[in-house]
């Protein structure tokens, strides 16, 4: 198993080689660490939680809506769909635009009064993370009993609330609905596959031309073409890969950001019968395909054995925390029922695993044409809306509910390699440790061995085994150093520490001030030479500022530093400096603010430091231990990288610590529950 939560990296205790799991909380990780070992213990399955918005404005029940997650503002956006029924039993296609605020659990109507797309259902919508805009293409609209299939392209800018019609002359996909659409982060383009024209728009469920579809969703025949849209030029390009998935509509497709590929599953194949283009036979599919824009080309990866049964109208989302695709629901034409099961696709093993069979309690009801969206800010999956049939009349029932997918277990899991594995790091202390999202693995560097000798070895942990990374060029042996991931350079940045003098880039006492980079692509160390940087220091903290793509360094100690008011009584003074590393510019910048409180004065070493991804602030926990070292006051400070200032908080809690210098204690940000987790190791307990 690869480690899933970078923020919890510091809780991997090398001495015990055990992995710490976050407390039970909402999140998109739908299995515990046990499952990654090949076993799913009884009761450890995915858990859904119904979110009930407070009274007030909210969308009408609907299906065939478009939805995507705004990665910049951390909001879910929903557009259009089929809404109803009204008091007369009729349905209508709508064109309203709504935002869901996950933290507050509230909806906001953002429908503009000016130019905007016509009401439509079955449209495709994606978030263009490069331009921070949403792209909408196609769908089917209605006015009374008339229908119109659409081939227009629109931008929506959340910052202004304005739509822009980006339709241009020249080649473009035929008008269609229920197509699959993703934003290719590797190319900055929008990918569209399949879909089809709508052969009827229905406003009364009794008139449904039932092929397993619902009002406004009877598609005939289906397309099997692949298109890319370039936001820079507004031009569409039809791609002609050597092989392609079969023609279909109501399939689902997601973008695998770790592998730079799109993943497609299932859908409804429409076959024309004879020479009558108005009569088709629908056949649900259960195949799995991947699109690689670098080739470009499609590759079939249909799993042998266990996999979701043939379906269409299902919802899929990519879970970036674990590198898997999650599938929920859809329609089983064999039974005539909406599905409530949950599946997971692991591209590394090309296997599907069922996490829920639909019979468990507290599930979203079986449905199709729902939306499943990955909320990357909270590491959860959000399911909303959709439709099902109500026996015995088979009248469709639409939903307006919102569900969070969250994990079900909390546990420490001993991941100590077996005695048969003779390759693993020797015991040490004062080492640096960091998670590298570019490789999906954990790294440990240096420290001091059991004799106190400094180390300069680098080890890689893939979740089950250790391997040493050899490099002729590497940092000098040291302990009490720090390391963090640089999102710009996709590398690990290491700074400072202390070793046995004399050492280059060190003072007379062995305190180091050098900056090193371990590059994930070359798997080599290289020293960087910024024009200036922090003083020589050890026992400092380093965290990744995920929002601004920087690395923050705080605190530490050096016996040549000037003692500051409120710092620990020690011949070795503690630092209260804040430095920021910019990998793009290869620079360190001193951001230490004018003192506004005593929050940053008390600098235990090493600092209990983490970064709050949801609020984009650095979190510092401090404690004051009594003379008997049995009780302590606790407080925390938050550093805002934008304003370069501290905010001090004193919750009035008491925590027990074995040392005022934080020995054996760790703090990490739990992105699943959007809160800080403090693990304090004492002589006889873990708090």
Q: Please, could you describe this protein's structure?
A:
There is one protein chain. The chain has 687 residues and is an all-beta fold. The protein folds into two domains: 6-23 and 422-680, Kelch-type beta propeller (Neuraminidase, 6 Propeller); 33-37 and 62-406, Neuraminidase (6 Propeller). The strands form 16 sheets. Strands 3, 4, 5, 6 and 7 form a five-stranded antiparallel β-sheet that branches. A hairpin with a 4-residue loop joins β8 (124-128) and β9.
Q: What's this entry about, in short?
A:
Helix content is 1%, strand content 44%. It has two domains: 6-23 and 422-680, Kelch-type beta propeller (Neuraminidase); 33-37 and 62-406, Kelch-type beta propeller (Neuraminidase), CATH 2.120.10. The longest helix has 4 residues, at 33-36.
CATH architecture assignment of the largest domain: 6 Propeller
Q: In one word, what is the shape? A: elongated
| Head-to-tail CA distance between termini | 26 Å
What is the class of the largest domain in the CATH system? Answer: Mainly Beta
Treating each run of at least 4 consecutive H or I residues as one helix, how many helices? Answer: 1
Total strand segments: 53
Mean pLDDT: 78
Number of domains: 2
Write out the CATH superfamily name of the largest domain: Kelch-type beta propeller
List the main descriptive attributes of the protein structure presented here.
Neuraminidase; disordered C terminus; mainly beta; 2 domains; elongated; disordered N terminus; four-stranded antiparallel β-sheet; 687 residues
């Amino acid at each position: 198993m690869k480690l899933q939560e970078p923020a919890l990296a510091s809780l991997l205790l090398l001495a015990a080689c055990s992995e710490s799991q976050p407390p039970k909380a909402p999140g998109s990780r739908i299995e515990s660490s046990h499952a990654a070992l090949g076993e799913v213990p009884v009761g450890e399955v995915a858990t859904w939680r119904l979110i009930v918005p407070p009274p007030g404005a909210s969308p009408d029940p609907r299906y065939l809506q478009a939805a995507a997650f705004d990665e910049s503002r951390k909001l879910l956006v929903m557009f259009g769909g089929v809404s109803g029924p009204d008091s007369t039993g009729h349905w209508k296609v709508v064109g309203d635009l709504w935002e869901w605020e996950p933290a507050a659990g509230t909806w906001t109507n953002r429908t503009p009064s000016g130019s905007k797309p016509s009401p439509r259902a079955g449209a495709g919508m994606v978030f263009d993370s490069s331009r921070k805009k949403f792209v909408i293409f196609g769908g089917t609209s209605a006015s009374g009993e008339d229908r119109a299939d659409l081939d227009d392209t629109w931008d929506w800018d959340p910052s202004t609330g304005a739509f822009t019609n980006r339709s241009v002359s020249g080649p473009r996909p035929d008008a269609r609905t229920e197509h699959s659409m993703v934003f290719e982060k590797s190319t900055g383009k929008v990918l569209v596959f399949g879909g089809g024209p709508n052969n009827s728009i229905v406003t009364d469920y009794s008139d449904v031309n039932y092929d397993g579809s619902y009002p406004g969703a009877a598609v005939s025949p289906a397309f099997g073409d692949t298109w890319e849209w370039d936001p820079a030029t507004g031009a569409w390009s039809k791609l002609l890969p050597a092989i392609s998935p079969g023609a279909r509509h109501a399939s689902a497709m997601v973008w695998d950001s770790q592998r730079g590929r799109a993943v497609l599953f299932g859908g409804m194949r429409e076959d024309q019968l004879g020479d009558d283009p108005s009569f088709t036979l629908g056949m649900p599919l259960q195949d799995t395909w991947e699109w690689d824009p670098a080739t470009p080309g499609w590759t079939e990866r249909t799993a042998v054995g266990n996999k979701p049964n043939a379906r269409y109208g299902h919802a899929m989302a990519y879970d970036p925390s674990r590198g898997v695709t999650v599938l929920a629901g859809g329609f089983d034409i064999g039974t005539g029922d909406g599905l409530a099961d949950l599946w997971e696709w692991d591209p590394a093993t090309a296997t599907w695993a069922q996490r829920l069979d639909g019979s468990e309690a507290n599930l979203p009801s079986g449905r199709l044409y729902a939306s499943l969206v990955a909320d990357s800010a909270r590491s959860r999956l959000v399911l909303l809306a959709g439709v099902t049939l109500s026996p015995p009349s088979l009248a469709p029932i639409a939903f307006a509910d919102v569900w969070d997918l969250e994990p079900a277990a909390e546990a420490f899991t001993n991941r100590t390699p077996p005695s048969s594995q003779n390759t693993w790091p020797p015991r040490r202390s004062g080492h640096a440790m960091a998670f590298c999202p570019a490789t999906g693995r954990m790294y440990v560097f240096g420290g001091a061995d059991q004799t106190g000798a400094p180390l300069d070895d680098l080890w890689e942990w893939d979740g089950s085994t250790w391997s040493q990374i050899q490099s002729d060029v590497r940092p000098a042996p040291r302990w009490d150093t720090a390391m963090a991931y640089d999102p710009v350079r996709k590398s690990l940045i290491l700074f400072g520490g202390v070793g046995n003098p004399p050492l280059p880039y060190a003072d007379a006492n062995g305190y180091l001030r050098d900056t090193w980079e371990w590059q994930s692509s070359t798997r080599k160390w290289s020293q960087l030479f910024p024009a200036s940087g922090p003083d020589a220091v050890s026992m400092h903290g380093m965290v990744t500022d995920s929002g601004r793509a920087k690395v923050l360094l705080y605190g530490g100690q050096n016996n040549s530093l000037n003692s500051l008011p409120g710092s620990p009584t020690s011949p070795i003074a503690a630092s209260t400096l804040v430095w920021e590393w910019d990998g793009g510019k290869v620079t360190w910048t001193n951001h230490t603010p004018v003192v506004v409180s005593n929050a940053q004065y008390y600098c235990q070493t090493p600092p209990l430091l983490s970064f709050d991804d949801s609020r984009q602030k650095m979190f510092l926990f401090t404690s004051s231990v009594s003379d008997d070292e049995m009780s302590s006051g606790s407080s925390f400070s938050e550093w805002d990288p934008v304003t370069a200032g501290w905010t001090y908080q004193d919750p009035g809690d008491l925590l027990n610590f074995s040392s005022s210098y934080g020995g054996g204690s760790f703090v990490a940000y739990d992105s699943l529950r959007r809160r800080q987790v403090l693990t304090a190791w004492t002589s006889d307990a873990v708090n």
